[in-house]
Amino acid sequence: MSGSVKVSQKQKLQLHQQLEEKQDFESSYYLSTRSSVSKQAFSTHKTSSHRLKASVKTEKRQEAVKLSPVPKRAKRTYLAMDKDKEVIGYVIPVFRANHDVVRSLMEAQEEDVTEEGINYVAMRNLFVREAREALDVKVEKKTRAKHVRESAERLEFDRTMEEWSEFRKKMHPDRLTHPPEFIIKPRGQTVWEGKTVRLHCTVAGWPKPRITWYKNNVLIDAKAHPEKYTAESTYNMHSLEIKNCDFLDTAQYYVSALNVKGEASSAATVVVKRFQDGPEEGLFHPKPHGFCPEHGVTFKTSIIDKFEVAFGCEGETLSLGCTVIIYPTVKKYQPDVVWYRNSVPLKPSKWVHTHWSGERATLTLTHLNKEDEGMYTLRVNTKSGFDTYSAYVFVRDTDVEVEGVPVAPLDVCCHDANKDYVVVTWKQPAVEGSSPILGYYIDRCEVGTHHWAQCNDVPVKYARFPVTGLVEGRSYVFRVRAFNKAGVGRPSRVSDPVVAMDPSDRARLRAGPLAPWTGVIKFTEEETTVGVIPGEPTDVVVTEATKSYVVLAWKPPEQRGHEGVMYYIEKCIQGTDTWQRVNTGIPVKSPRFAIFDLAEGKSYNFRVRCCNSAGVGEPSVPTGEIVVSDKLDLPSAPCNPVVIRNTDTSVVVTWGASKDVKHLVGYYIESNMVGTDVWTPCNNKPVKQTRFVCHGFTTGSNYVFRVKAVNAAGYSQSSSNSDAVVVQAAISVPARPTNVTLLEAVRDYMVLGWTAPTNNGGADIRGYFVDFRTVKGNVYGKWHEMNQKALTTTSFKAENLKENIFYQFQVRAMNMAGVSKPSLPSAGLECKEWTITIPGPPVGLHVLEVRETSVVVLWEPPVFDGRSPVNGYYLDIKEASAGEKGWKAVHEKTNKGKYMKVTGLTAGTSYVFRVRAQNLVGVGKPSAELGPILAQTRPGTKEIFVDVDDNGVISMIFEFSEIKEGSHFVWSKNYQEITDTSRLTIVTEGGKSRAIFNSPSLEDLGTFSCMVTNTDGISSSYTLTEEALLRLLDLSHEHRFPVIPFKNEMAMELLEKGRVRFWAEMEKFTSSCQVDYVFNDVIIEQGKKYTMKFDKSTGLIELFMDSLELTDEGTFTFNLVDGKAKGTTSLVLIGDEFRELQRKSEFERAEWVRKQGPHFVEYLGFTVTPECNVLLKCKIGNIKPETEIIWSKDCIEIAEEDEDAEKIEKKDSELTFNIGKISKQDAGIYEVFLRDERGKDKSAFNLTEAGYQAVMNELFRVIANSSSDVQIMSTENGIILYSNVTYYDENLPVGWLHKDAKIAASERVKSGVTGEQLWLKINEPTEKDKGKYTMDIFDGKDGVKRVLDLTGKAWEEAFEEFQRLKAAAIAERNRARVVGGLPDVVAIQEGKSLNLTGNVWGEPTPEVCWVKNDKELVSDNHYTLKFEHGKFASITIAAVTTVDSGKYALIVKNKYGKEAGEFTVSVYNPDEESKEKKD
Q1: Closest to 609 in 3D by CA, of 565, 642, 644
Q2: pLDDT at residue 285 in the model
């Protein structure tokens, strides 16, 4: 039986009339399909929520059966059935066309309607009217003969209508509208990188065409990327500008022109060439920044504050960030910031959040999974180029709920989705658990629901599984769980949603209508091959074969009739002729099918039959013998892992790839610390390369590594173990030396000094090499070596030089890895003899014990002492950012030693140091600057601590866990290395060094320090004072003669059933400790009345008694003996205390008998803690482990996975629900249920309305009572009254009153809250502000008032302090002072003239006077005193003599203050000094 569509004669007549009225404006496509319109003058009117349904009438019973229309392109079979479910025919589906899209586009073009004319409007109305007429559709069942007759009539009518249409077209040609046409097409271009390309075209057409540009068939949105593209349209000329081209812009560019008459397109190819030849650059390959003509600058990018290698755990949130500086700054210009994972750009999602603040780029990964592990890269794109930074992120598995189960698989994906099944794949996890993984369970969940259904009953070993039993058209997500002997592990992250639908159907749904913007509706005529049995399928092949299933695929038959076909699959065991149908129930709709329930190891043949409503076709050609087994073998083990040192916490592991492996997923690397049997995965996501950097190791520890490969079939055997490697930084050549300076010069030689490299490359500096060259004007000679043998010091005597010749020197350092780069050349140094008498600069400056507020500076004496020996040193300091004027002395008196501890530093600030030597002649030149030194404690730095062991031995201990091979501890006293072992014994084990005092005495007082060689200054010191020594000696005596300490003395408590427990707890003891239990001086033994316990693991001593009798009144004692240590603890129970305890014991025993079921001792109530947290609490009794305790809110049970479950706490017999800081969201009815086999109980608390208000009132009471008294604080702006509270709630009413009247807020008087401080600010107070101030805080009832009487003395003191602070601020700004210009000491030869000028400041201009030895000076012939411009005061002493020596001062004063600038003048006679030396 065939079905067809019947169109009434009235509908034909209407279409005929429409043709006569509108045919001049119909599109060519519409005319070509006129016959289809006459046959099928209907379309499904589709909305977003439902479809129009068609009716099918049968001849037998005239009953309408509702069918949902589907597109004809689906080629589906629609069977019509009677009530007995027998097939009686089939129905042709109703076609669909989205007229809403047509109508919305037409309305959007209202601006062009006037230009396009009445013809276009008529054509639009035609489409809209046809859409309305197509709503009423009738589908009738007809005989084949009637259908053939009506078809012939329709064909004849169509030919007539087509001839009439062609005639009318010739008589009335359409001269107004025409489709788009390219007059000038865009031309392809080839350009260099960094250039700008412009594509041009000219398009004609009416109505005015719309122009769209595409890149490789992807729409270009110029407005979304204005920095890259600019699209312009001027009249009929159109252009696309591509700015700052790079290699990725090489593509095929299309331009599309579209109007209601049709569409035209043209293509042009753009090729971008690189500047240089060579291999292809990667995505993050650095590229030089180019000039940006748009802004006229070259943008340069700096990425600072970079994120390091990060470690996260599944379920955590991890943030990565960098600060990006773009120079120069262009207003309103921002770079393009892109994040990548493993070179794939990341898109924002619920798992990935990116943020760009204009300066800092942040990537946040919420709820980490192992899929998030990988190399993360930040790429900053500017119009001049790009810069990148990368670091690896490791994601470790979260702790499993059951010990030994495997962790979650990862990367669950869906493939080959169709109507009948979906192939799910995944990757095996790195950790199998306590036993190998036996298989996997696959779960599915329909999108929009929360119900997970298990897809396989038997675990599958293969990491690929076809899931069947899906409902066509529905979307699903999948997850996978691993299974081993210990149980089933946690599920993986869910896959992306997938629709159970054939790819052709999905593509059609994604594509939408052919051309929705033109309003063209495509109609097709049904094929006339009705009732044809389909042919046989072809090319039946097995695409997948495992132990669990086989997947078949085939091509549909060429002969299939007018309708879609379905398939039956048949199997035959090899060696038999019996074919069995696999899918006996429902035919398969897709040309693919997965077959289960096959016997492993047996051979099968498969074939396929097609079927439709006409019948079942012939079978296909059999597949041939197929053996049910895994086609994919396990990978072979990787080869020979090799480990290379990298950093202090990472190593590089390389290995040989697995041989002959198919479909490799990747490799897992495992590490093992030598001495343990625990293997830990280094990566939780497989990597495909054969080199991997493993991070997160302990510095100085030994590790071995192994690698295993993985594919869909499973894991390979682990490779052989690598050689053990110590984790520490790889050795490299040292940094270059610095500060090459001249220390001494003679006629034919010079003494040079320099600073050792800041980084020794991980190995000790073995020596230095010095190079020199001559300098004549601006002509530099060649470099020559001065020493063939490496120098071991940081100074060198350069001999055999020529006098009065200038030389330059450079120095290179050497360690076991090689020679460093040379230092910067020194300045030109002239070789001539020095005649100076003061000492040279000290050398060898270095620092130890760098902390946030202190540092120890050490140095060596100068090479040149001058005319007399060095008798002291001066240490100078300045901040690194300060200029030369920023130097200041650390101390006033000379320092005799060669070290000094500088304190009072500011954390995070960098400092520079220098040292000057002094002899009898004077102070020499400063040393080379040391620094900058950052005042910051290195993370993990430990200090020296003093320990007294059990034997009373006193020692100092210094630990450094990251000690490297070749490093060792060096102990010093007063910063001189200890070589005499008579006082100290040094013992070093691993990263710990101990200095043991042999016989502590006053001789050992001093500063002891310890440093670790071959590090960046790891050191610490301890100063042993006399007081500390006496304390240590007392402690040593206590350890030699010990007393057993008790953590808890004997105590008593009542237990369940009225039992009495006596207990005590020791703090320190050994396993040989013994206990005697004594009652009234009689030792008691364990028996019926007494039960005794002594837990030697915790030191807990217990004595139990079932009940108290009258004879038990007395003293209970525990006597302890532990070697030479002893201890005793007792408890006295007599008189009223004993009788009260006996009564309570009997009561508790009675209560135990009464309370046999679960019950509430105290019902659910609330309390507000002093911290203002709201707690719901109750007490329960007689609870068993199986007793259920259920909390609910508003009749909804609080499950363990809910957020509120974390607020529930059970401690002993008390249940609490910690609401915390309460808000409206916490309102509701809270209930607690107790239930077990003995009974149940319930308690509720209504936290709504009155209950909620009661809680808030209690909260207000706690807050109000926590408020402090109102206090007064004066500032230079006014007076502040304030009170502090524990916590402040925004709903808490707080009012301020002045003289019992409410204070109105103004600019002068303001009230508010800062944190937990309530304040009232009175700016510029006056007499009107005096009086009583009251702070009124609502406490849930009346209120708590804090009163302050701001009158009398309180007002006077506050107002006086305000005026004083205000005046002080003014006076400080204007007081007289000496701001500079005067030295501290002036040394001048007798007979010389002395002139000094001091800089003075003050407002008003200060008065100035000079004094000598506290006597004022006046201007005369000897003293000339001047004061110029109100700023400069000078003194001139003509022909000074020894009488002029003394203490001088410049005194300045004005009405705001007075200050004196003091200095000392020392006049000396050279002849007298020389005579004294001869004597």
Answers
A1: 565
A2: 56
